[in-house]
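name: query_chain
kind: protein
chains: 1
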Amino acid sequence: MTPTLRTPRLLLDPYRPGDEDDFVALFQKAEVSRWMGDGPSPEADDRALFGRIFTKVYAQGLFDVWAVRRDGVLVGHAEIKPSGKVGGHEIVYALSPSVWGTGLGTELAQGIVAHGFGTLGLTEVHATVDARNEASLALLGKIGFEHVRDITEDDGGVTRVLTRRLTATDKPPFAP
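structure:
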């Protein structure tokens, strides 16, 4: 079961059925979805994805997926999941443009990483980022992720694989 996490300004908790419209609205924003998977999807696909969080991910306990809330408002999405593409656990996160530039992305990524190291007992976590997504690359570099390799996608695009390894100074920035 996906645990609830807290960072200084964010609450990461399992999605509730009533979050569907906010989830879809987040992923329908072109500036958010352009960096996720294959880019913007039809609204029906995002609604189906939301449904699978309940019927597959939560029902089968596959991995942790959270609604990211600030002051009770859904402002993002986060997950940590096993990935054959990177050979370990990968973090995934998205925030509404309304909170970009406030440090919440750094806080969110640090919280997910700390959960991976603490609760999941991982010694490293990975992230995959489109090579053109300079903001995410800078954010992850700032919190200790290192570029380890590139993947050339079928469309010719380049995805950077970044890795953050557990260090002796890592401490969880959240309270369960």
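note: The CA atoms of residues 12 and 119 lie 14 Å apart.
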